[in-house]
Amino acid sequence: MPDDSKVTLKVGFAEQLRDIEVQLPAGEPKPWDARAELKVVGKPHPRVEAPLKVSGAAKYTHDIVPQGALWAAVLRCPHACALVESIDVAPAKSQPGVAAALALVKPGERMIFAGQDVAAVAAKTAEQAEAALQAIAVQYKPEAFVIDTAAAMQDGAPLVHRGKVEERSTEGDEPGAGGSAGQRGNVRTSPSMKKGDAHKGLRMAKVSHEATYTTQVHTHSALETHSIVVQWDGPKQATLWCSTQGIFSVRDEFAEIFELKPTDVHVHTEFLGGGFGAKFGASAPGSRMGFIAGELARQAGAPVRLLLDRKEEHLCTGNRPDSRQQVKLGAGANGQLTAIHVVAHGTAGIGTGAGVGRNAFGVYSRCPNILVESHDVFTHAGPATAMRAPGHPQGAFALELALDELAKKLKRDPLDLRLAHDEHPVRRHQFELGRKQFGWDEGKKRAAALRDKQARVRRGFGVAGSIWGDFGRGKAVVATVSVMRDGSVEVKNGLQDIGGGITTVVAQVVAEVLQRPIEAVRVRLGDSELGPSVGSGGSVTTASVTPAVRAAAEAVKTQLTALAAKQLGRKPEEITWSEGQARAGSKSIAWAELCKKIEGEAIVATGTRPETYGAYPVKFMGGNSYQIAGVQFAEVSVDTWTGVVTVERVLAIHDCGKVMNPLTARSQVQGGVILGTSYALTEQRIMDRVRGVMLNPNLETYKIAGARDVPRAIDVVFTPVDTGANNTGAIGIGEPATIPTAAAIACAVHDALGVAVRDLPLTPDRVLAALGVVPARGAS
Amino acid sequence: MSDRARITRRGLFRGIGTAGLLAGCKPSERPPTTTEDGEQPPPAGSAGALGPGPSPLEFTLNGQRQVAEVAPHVTLLAALREQLRVTGPKVVCDRGACGACTVLVDGVARNSCMMLAHDVDGAAVTTVEGLSQGGKLSVLQEAFIRHDALQCGFCTSGMLMSCQALLGRTQLEREDVEAAIAGNLCRCGTYPNVVAAVLDAAKGSA
User: Which Gene3D superfamilies does this entry report, sorted A to Z (chain B) (predicted)?
Assistant: First the structure.
C-alpha cells in the first residue's frame, strides 16, 4: 500500500478559489475539486428509481405481507398520567382471529403520557386486532399531570419523572448538541453555549431589545407511519422490514432486545415514505414497536405487521419540541452588537432535546458576547425526537426576528445588520447575492410605502441565515462495486433512500468513474446484508456514502485498467480511458470486450471513506468539519383585515459543497422551504389542558401545507463550494434547507406590519392581535 | 375505569348497519342479497342487504374484470390493499384528509378510504398500477419523473390519480392543477414540481 500522500486541491467558492494541500490517507482517490471536470456528477438526472414510484411498483414496509402474516394493534394509555392498578389481557386471547396478546405494563407502573404502550395483540385482520383490544381490561388510577411548558416549570407542578433523566439521541441529532448540566423539578438544563460576557455586553449597550418568542410543537407527520414487519426465521434469526432512516439502527436494537447476533437480523427497507428524523431504531421514540412486533410474532409463531395509524403517529413517534425563548440583544452607538443572550425553555414531552440549535451562537459571530442557555421542560406528552435540523428552526426564528426588531430601533437595514456580524464568507456572499437577486432594497421601499399608507394588504421582506455542519462520517460505509463479465455494473450498500435521491447520486458517481451510462449502473440499497452504511439523518448521507462508492469504483477501475493493459500489451500506466474504452496509443479495447476477459464472474471491490480531511473555508464550531452556509429571503403579503399571511416568494440560496445532482438537490431545498412554510403558518399540536390529550392527531386539523398553501414561487440557488472534505466534495443539504424559512417569513411579516408577531405559527388571530385589532389569546 | 370507549368509523358503520348505509348509497346498483342462514331479512323497501360476512363483488380493476368476496363494511382502500394486494394506493390518514389513496372510479378521482368496496360494484376502478399501458409509462408518469415530482414517493400514487383525472381538459392553468391536488398532501414538498409536471404533460397530451 502506498503511504499517505499529499495533494494540492483547488478549493473555495465563486471567485474566491485557492490551492490548499491536504494529506490523503492511503488508497484514497484524489478528491474532485474545483479543477475536476465531471461529466455525470453535477448534472441533473431524474431519479433512477422513479419508474417504480410512479407505477405503484415500489414496495414500502406498509406493502409487505409475508405469508400468513398477522396484524398487530397496540392499546394506548388514554391518560396523561395514571397508575396502572390492574391489567388483564387474557380476554383478548379468546377473541376471534387473535393469535397472541401481550401486556406491556405491570400493575403499579406509572403511565406518563396519553398514547403510551399498554398492551398489544396480533390477529388475522386489522379489525379483529382492533376489536380484541377492546376486550383488554385495564384499571387506571389517574394522577395529576402537566401539559403546559410554562406550568410545568412552576414549583409544585406534578413531576413527570421521579429520577434523573438520561438522554436518548439518534443519528438524527446534531453531533455534540446534547448533554446535561443539572435537573430540578421538571426542568433539565443543557450545557450553555458561551462566548465573552453577555451580561456585561448588555450593560454596555446603548440600544437594546428584549422580548419573548415562542414556537409550537411540530410533528414529523411522514406520510408512511412508523411500521415494522417481523418474521422469525428460527429461534435466533429474524427478517425485518422497517420504515426506517437507519437500517443498522433497526438491526442493532432488535438484536439487543431479543439477545440475537446482529448479523442474524436481516433488515429490509427498499423504500420508505419519509422520516424527517423520527425513524431510527426498531422502536418509535414513544412506542416499543420492535419488541411488540417481535414478541407477538414469537408467541404467535407467525410473521407480524405493526403499522401505526395516523393518530398513533402524532402521539408517540416524536415531534419537534416547542420553545419559549427570552432574547436580549444589545448594540453600541455604532450599531454593532455588544451582546446576544438567549434563555430558552422548551418541552420535548417526557423526552429530551428541546435546545434551540446553533443559530444564536454561531451565525452572527462578530458579536463578542454571546450566551445561549437551554432547558428541557418535562411535560406529560409524547417524547420529542430529532426533527429536520433539531433546534435550529426555532432558534433561527427567535434570533432573526429579534435582530429585525433591534434593527428597527437602530434604524438600520436588517440585511446590513446581518452582514456586519456574519464572518462566514460563503454566507456573506449569499446575503449579497440575494440582495440583488431578490430585489431587497426596492422591496423594502415598497413595503414601507404600503405600511405608511396603511394599506389593507401589505407586503414585507425578510431574510435569515442557516448554520449546519458537514457531519459526513468516515469509516462508516463500506460500498461494493462489481463489474460482471457481461459488462453490467452493480453497486451495493446497506443504505436506505429516504427520498433525498441518493440512489441516483450513487449511480452517477459510479457512472462517472467507470464512464458508463447511468442506466447501465444497477444500484442495490435497502438491505442490511449489502454492507455497512449510515443512517439518513443529520444531512450526512451523500457526504458519507458517495466517497465510499467512488473509492470502490476507482478500485474496480484500477483492476480493469490492469486487465486492459494485459490485453493491449501495454503497462497499466499507459492506459487512458475515454467514453468507456480503454486506450493505449492507437490501440483500444471496448468495454464489452474488456469485460469478457474478466477471469471468473466479476471484478468486485469495496470502498470506504476516511475521516473528513478538509474544511475550507470555515470550520463548524468545535470541530474539523466545514460549516454549511445558507440564507433564505421571503416576501409575504399580509391582509390586515383578515390576518392571513401569504408567502409570495422565497429565494433559497444554499451551499451543499459540490452539487451532485442539481435536479434532486433543488427538490430537497424546495421541500425544506415548504416544510418551513408549513411550520411558520399552520402546523401546531394542540393539547387539551384539562384532559391531557392531543386534540388534533390527524391531518385535517393538524394542518400541513397543501399545494395552495406554499410560497407562490420558490427559487433555489446553489453557491457551490469546494471544501476538500472528501473525495467527491459532497456535503449535506437536507437540514440546512429548512432552518431559515420560518425565520425569514416571520421577519417579512414584521416588515409588512411594522410590528412583530412573536409566536409561531403566524396564524390570523395572532397577526390581528399584533395589529391591536383583536385581543391576544393566552400565550402558548 | 375501562379503556377504549371510542367510536371508530368502522364501528359506526357496523352499528348503523351496512344495509342501512348501502340503502342510502346506490339503490340501483345494489348487489343481490347473499345473507347467510338466520340472517335478518332485507329492510322493507330495499332490494336486499349485504353482510355481515363477505359478499361477492364485481368490478373492473385497471381494465381487468375483478371478482372478490368482500365484507360490506370494508373500504375500497382496504379491499384493494389487503385483499387484492394492489398496494399502489397508500394508507396515510384513512379518513379522507390526505389523498394518498386516490383512485379513479369511472374516471372520477375518489379517496378510496372514504368508499366502501361494494360502492364500486359494477364500476371501473383505476389505480396507479393501471396508468401505464403494456409496461410503457404514460405521458403523465414520464412528466412526473422528468420534473422530479416525487421524493419519497408515498404521496405519488394519489397525486398521479388526481392529476390523471384532470388531464384531457383544454387550457389547463396552474390554478387548475393546484385545485386538483388540493386534497393530496405531500410531506417532502413536491407540489411545485407536480404542478410543472402536469402542465407539461397536458401540453404533451394535447
Answer: 3.10.20.30, [2Fe-2S]-binding domain (1.10.150.120)
